[in-house]
Design a protein that fits this description.
The chain is mainly α. The protein contains 4 helices and no strands. It has helices at about 5-10, 10-25, 35-50, 65-70. This is Transposable element P transposase-like GTP-binding insertion domain-containing protein.
Length: about 70
């Protein structure tokens, strides 16, 4: 799987779009709230792990550590 495609599917805009259409009572998306939540978690996880410089890495006082711990535990 290409990472660029994954980042498009698991993006914040997809999560927002799912919620928007669910709130507008699109019948097929009545129960998409868990999917929207999962997509947002994947977006946040990818963002927290995708750092360009080693100095931006995850540290004990980094807000990214909360994202990773919340996802895995």
């Amino acid at each position: 799987m290409r990472v660029s495609l994954m980042t498009q599917v698991f993006s914040k805009s997809v999560s927002v779009g799912l919620n928007l259409y669910r709130e507008r009572l699109v019948e097929e998306l009545d129960d998409c709230k868990p999917t929207s939540k999962f997509v947002l978690h994947m977006n946040n996880l990818f963002d927290s792990l995708n750092r360009k410089y080693t100095g931006e890495g995850i540290k004990s006082n980094s807000p990214d550590i909360k994202v990773n711990l919340k996802f895995f535990f």
